[in-house]
């Protein structure tokens, strides 16, 4: 899958181990790049459902988006484009 970030700032943050650690803590700084790599290598959303992280669809004002669990209450929010 191709990953597109909602902002340039977020893309830069997620590419810096130091900033990831400062913003989300050491556990998530290690986990976020793994989750993103898993998404990059998945061919479709059905494959993502089998990956670690308990992918689940969100409801309400977040309908149409999905979340993958991280540590300490954080989630990685995804919006399929196709």
Protein model, in words:
The chain has helices at residues 8-14, 17-41, 45-48, and strands at residues 56-57, 66-69, 75-78. With 82 residues, the chain is of the alpha+beta class. It has one domain (8-78).
Short description:
By secondary structure, the chain is of the alpha+beta class.
Set down the secondary structure blueprint.
Blueprint: H1 8-14, H2 17-41, H3 45-48, E1 56-57, E2 66-69, E3 75-78
Antiparallel strand pairs: 1-2, 2-3
Largest sheet data: 3 strands, antiparallel
Number of domains: 1
Q: Kindly state the percentage of residues in helix.
A: 40-55%
Cα(first) to Cα(last) distance is 10 Å
Element-level helix/strand string: HHHEEE
Going across the major beta sheet, what is the strand order? 1-2-3
Unreliable spans are none
**What's the Cα radius of gyration?**
13 Å
Beta fraction: 5-15%
Describe the global form.
globular
Mean pLDDT: 90
Q: Which key features would you list for this structure?
A:
82 residues; alpha+beta; 3-stranded antiparallel β-sheet; 12% strand; globular; single chain
